Amino acid sequence: MEGYMQTLSGGKVKRYVQFLEISDNPELIAQYRKWHSEEYSWKEIRDGIRQVGILEMEIYILGNRLVMIVDAPADFQWQEAMDRLATLPRQAEWEAFMAKFQGCDANARSDEKWQPMERMFRLY
Fold first, then answer.
1. CA–CA separation, 103 vs 64, rounded Å?
2. What is the pLDDT of residues 16-27, one digit of tens each?
3. What global pTM score does this model have?
4. Alpha-carbon Rg for the chain in angstroms
5. What is the mean pLDDT of residues 79-108?
6. Quick check: 69 and 6 in contact, CB under 8 A?
7. Which of 13, 33, 66, 71 is deepest in the core (most CB within 10 A)?
8. Could you tell me how far CA 66 lies from the centroid of its own chain?
9. If pLDDT is split at 50, 70 and 90, which confidence band does 4 have?
């Protein structure tokens, strides 16, 4: 295992970690990976994530289990950002498109799909 290089911000950040299970169908998993690649992900979605104040977002996959890590400024307000994100161009269209992989209602927002995880250990 080689690890992943990170760019650190100059100040304090909030970190959010969330979990989601997607379809256990290998073909759908391959498509889900494709649509999250740099080549195929929608520019409006990446721009919208930045517009609401998110500094970094990563999604990790193991089988059909996903973990998303979100870093945001220390004064970031999650619900306000998610409310704003839901109104940005193509966001609802993206969520509806992702629903076929995520096994949820096509009208569900991102913050209604991903489940927050609780940190239970910290080594600092």
1. 12
2. 999 999 999 999
3. 0.91
4. 15
5. 94
6. no
7. 66
8. 9
9. confident
